[in-house]
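Below is one protein, fold included:
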Amino acid sequence: MAFDTSVSGILAASADLGIIGNNIANSSTSGFKSSQGEFTDIYAASLLGTPGTAIGQGVSLNSVTQDFSQGNIEFTNNSLDLAINGSGFFRLSDGGVATYSRAGAFQLDRDGFIVNASGLQLQGYPTDDEGNITGELGSLQLTTALVDPKGTGNVSVTANVDSRDLAAEPWNPDANGGALNAFANPPVLAKADQYNSSTSLTVYDGLGNPHVLSLYFAKTAADNTWETRVAIDGVEIDPVDADGNAVVPTIPFEANGQLAEANKPLLVNIANWTPLNANGAPNGAAAQAFTVDLSSFTQFGASFAVSTVQQDGYTTGQLRGLEIDDTGVLFTRYTNGQSRQQGQIAVANFTNPNGLQPVGDTSFVETFSAGAPTITTPGLSGTGLLQSGALESSNVEITQQLVRMIIAQRNFQANAQMIQTEDAVTQTVINLR
């Protein structure tokens, strides 16, 4: 019996050394969780139970448990590297089979899916066509295509015109009642004495082509009243009123230099503007309408100054960068200054993480003993927040593992010595005469 008992001890010590060796071997593996053997003693029992003088028959490996405590966070230069600060697992798809991992080293495959080194796809909540996050769990795929351009629809300008200015000469750029036209031969340009101040900004047509919108402000003979002229790419545009009739917009100020509330919003309406190319011919973009809001204008005794200029159009843009916030929301940034929300990473939590079954690649699969996973977003249902540009290192403590290795080695040696002793005793009995 002593032989069998000692052999079980040797097997247990060997298993313990194997567990320790695996821990040490993975001390630099991102997301790895150290393991520990759980051992139980063995007793022979019958239907009547175990007698009080029963001698144990050795030891056996009952289970191998994982230590799911937090590992150190190490920062990287890859925004797709993710670490979970707290509880939870990344949910991955292995050909439709759900696996779970703490290792957050991700990258993009050729189709734009976020995957790990083994090609498993990161799961989350994708966005719909309007950029809204949906409630349907799926593989996260980044769109790397160009962002469609958007034609300008609204322009807002805030400025102060100088109340000290004298009235400008009547608007007559070509001296024959004609309008501004930079493509005429010779070009018809604005005369400096026919306006008091001007500003310009960039607007966009439906194809994303930029155009220069120029605004000219001329003080009239009437008190506190200014006229506005509009040109795009050097060609004068006639604004229209609510009925579609061409008008010359005026800015009527009160005696305090402010616009009366009754005159707000003060909009310059541009209708049926045909975008032109560099030669002055239509460039193929559709005719466009937009408004210029001058409601924030003032007339004080100070030099003309533009405070803010805003417009909602933009040209096409290429993917420039990716950001992931601590709640797992993915933002992509583009060369045209726009950003897009392209999904939210999901995390899973388990009632009994030690019930998960390791399957390699620092991944686990759910089992009955682990309980059903709770799938949520980072920071909810007891899960941790994400750290982008970082990886969770292994939680293996080398010093602790080396001490355990010494103990397991001594256990192995002691059991081997026990076999040697039992052999000597047996040999003595055999030699009796």
Observations:
- The chain has a mean pLDDT of 91.
- The first strand starts at residue 35 and ends at 42.
